[in-house]
FAD-dependent monooxygenase (Aurantiacibacter sediminis), 404 residues
Amino acid sequence: MADKRELLILGGGLVGMTLALAAARKGISSHVVDRADPADLLAEGFDGRASAISTASWNLFKNIGLADQLEPHGCRIESIAVTDNMRPGRIDFVPEEHEGTLGRMFANRQLRLALFEAAKDEKLISWHAKANVVERHRGEHGVSVTLEDGAVLEASLLVGAEGRGSPTRDGAGISIAKWDYSHRAIIQGLIHEKPHDGVAWEIFYEAGPFALLPLLDDDQGRHRSALVWTVSEADGEGVMKLGPRAFKAEVEKRLHGIFGDIELNGGRSSYPLGFHHTAKIVDNRLALVGDAAHGIHPIAGQGLNLGLRDVGALVQVIAEGMRIGLDPGDAQVLARYEKWRGLDSFMVALATDGLTRLFGIPGKAPSAIRRLGMGAVQRMPTLKRWFMDEARGMSGDLPELLKG
């Protein structure tokens, strides 16, 4: 007899596995299918990226029981400094003492470790790693997938969580608006002389944002940050080919001495930047979450947080629907998820796209206008508060799992 479960989640990355764990905490069972080998994903140096986890997303991790395991590995973001070319007119976002932090920085590898460890011991999660899906089926009463080894998995609802190139989304014929920014993000770890004091820097240059994200000191007590440097696609290959000394010199030029002496830490990686947003996030017995539904520029560090809001909302509508006897794949349940998340994710995507374009306009006059605007925000507590609430993920209609 087939092991039919409530959810069939295709994609076991940060968003997909968080969804499976959040669902399990509500008594909802799932199959999680991922083609990757977990050992590869957890290898040192596989992915040098780090993610900013907002206050709301941290609440989600607390509510699904991951906080104790993650807490020692997260660096608190005490404030955010935003500047145009390091010229006068900077904004400093500093939360009130009772609000805690603006979020936490985690290495993606550390998030995976915590998620995979929890999933391994969860009876409501059937984890199928190193598995390729060869056929997907959505019918009137349920869904199923056939794996390459011939195994058939069944559930009530199919969830596409495979990321930007989601074959589940594309196979469902869901249309998508997308464009390429012709930019590339260069990722590099830094060790630096001066402490970062928990400050996340967003320095806007004409070629793109230059972000410095605070990390915990290493086991030798050295101060560390993660650099996310956006360059044009035309320059990306050249920047990646720079030797360590030349690359360090280019970074130092843009740092203006805020960290003192620096050295490079670990390998360098890069990935292309683009925008996409689906016309809808549900179909017959199908829901999309995370980058399968919306991919945004990393300018505000909201990509993963947007996906975690999807997780909270989807779990809540399914759990509430099941309490009144509705199937997880019921059209009423999915319509509620679509209404809740469709507009919010679209507005965040538009805002990040607008910021990317606004700060990319070259010339002294646009820079002066931007700095004038930032100076006005710095002097307006109400507007500044709104921006901070957005950064913390605490605005709008929050799912219960994302509340404190």
User: Anything to note?
Assistant: The chain has a mean pLDDT of 86.
